[in-house]
Automatic annotation (TrEMBL):
Full protein name: Uncharacterized protein
Transmembrane segments: 7-26, 38-58, 78-100, 112-129
Domain of life: Bacteria
Key words of the record: Membrane, Transmembrane, Transmembrane helix
């Protein structure tokens, strides 16, 4: 029962953060329309999913912190999962050149891909920390 309440509490907290983030996103979009600035929309749309990914992994990380083990970092997981998602995220902000190009419609026309990539990056970033 204690474990259920722990995870349920985190679910409520994360849901509340998503609710507040959505309200803030609406405010940012209104400000951007009034000021003709699109950069805050891109930054919020990129950073918020990463924060949500971090929060999704945080409950398990807190449990791992309580254990008395040595910290390690899983470089293979970080390189195989986090770096490609970071590349996808950065393609929405920076016009990066290179040999691996992502079709423009996947980045600019479909924010779902950026939301998924940001969430996976945030989750994997904390998941790569092992105790």
């Amino acid at each position: 029962m204690k474990r259920f309440l722990y995870y349920f509490g985190w679910t409520v907290v994360i849901g509340f953060i998503i609710f507040l983030g959505t309200k803030y996103q609406i405010r940012v979009e209104e400000e951007a329309r009034n000021n003709y600035e699109i950069i805050p929309i891109f930054l919020f749309g990129t950073i918020f999913p990463i924060v949500i990914g971090l929060f999704l992994r945080l409950p398990k990380l807190i449990i791992e912190i309580k254990q008395n083990k040595q910290w390690t970092f899983d470089w293979i997981k970080f390189i195989a999962i986090a770096l490609p998602t970071l590349y996808i995220i950065s393609m929405s902000i920076l016009p990066l050149g290179g040999s691996i190009k992502i079709p423009e419609y996947m980045i600019n026309g479909n924010p779902t891909i950026l939301i998924i990539a940001g969430t996976v990056f945030g989750f994997t970033l904390l998941d790569s920390l092992k105790k």
